[in-house]
Amino acid sequence: MSEKFLINGKLNDTGSELWSNILPVPDDIAKKLIEGKDKRVICHIEGIRKFHCALLPNGLGGWYILINNKRKKELGLKSGSKVTFKLEKDRSEYGMEMPAELREVLDQDEHADELFHKLTPGRMRNIIHAVASVKSSDIKIRRAFVYAEHLKKNKGKIEYKELAAEMKEANQQARNFPS
User: Fold this and answer.
1) 98: which DSSP letter?
2) How far apart are CA 36 and CA 32, in angstroms?
3) What is the phi/psi pair of residue 101, to 5°?
4) How would you classify the pairing of strands 21-25 and 82-89?
């Protein structure tokens, strides 16, 4: 088990509509968690489940993590709220948890799995997040299939406009022919 660092901080507002909240991370702790270019950590805040994130430089020699508005609301926090949180090094394979539905689709499709693993770590996390961000297992499976087919059709490249159209079509088909 990796070392966890307890931090008492204050939620700061950045002014952004999506990522309007940051938690500063003391430099000495950040340096213990960063390994080369790997800045992935797991954050534990009381009241919500742990989440995977990255330490980000503030441009002034310090570090922070982002707290999105959904998490802020879950915690009942306001800008300036005092927050106690724990950080630990993220040792997961992808920098976040792989949904079982995506793992199963990739396990059953060797070509899609190979193409997925040739993507950059950030693009892999984007796919993982897109699949994991819904509650319904059926929708996770549908999204995983669309991504797998998209990667195969485009030889491992992600064409975002095309992907959005494919996702929309898959969702429409699911509405027209529910299981």
Assistant:
1) P
2) 11
3) -65, -40
4) unpaired
DSSP 24-72: EE-HHHHHHH-BTTB-EEEEEETTS--EEEE-EE-SSS-EEEEE-HHHH
Distance, in Å, from the CA atom of 121 to the CA atom of 99, rounded to the nearest integer, reads: 16
Q: Hey, is 91 helix, strand or coil?
A: coil
Average pLDDT over residues 52-63: 90
Single pTM value for the model: 0.79
CA dist 75 and 148 (Å) reads: 35
Round to whole Å and give the CA distance between 20 and 121: 25
- C-beta separation of 111 from 156 below 8 A: no
For residue 166 the two structure tokens come to 């494919």
CA separation for the pair 169, 167 (Å, rounded): 5
Length of the chain: 179
pLDDT digits (tens, 9 = 90+) for 130-140: 999 999 999 99
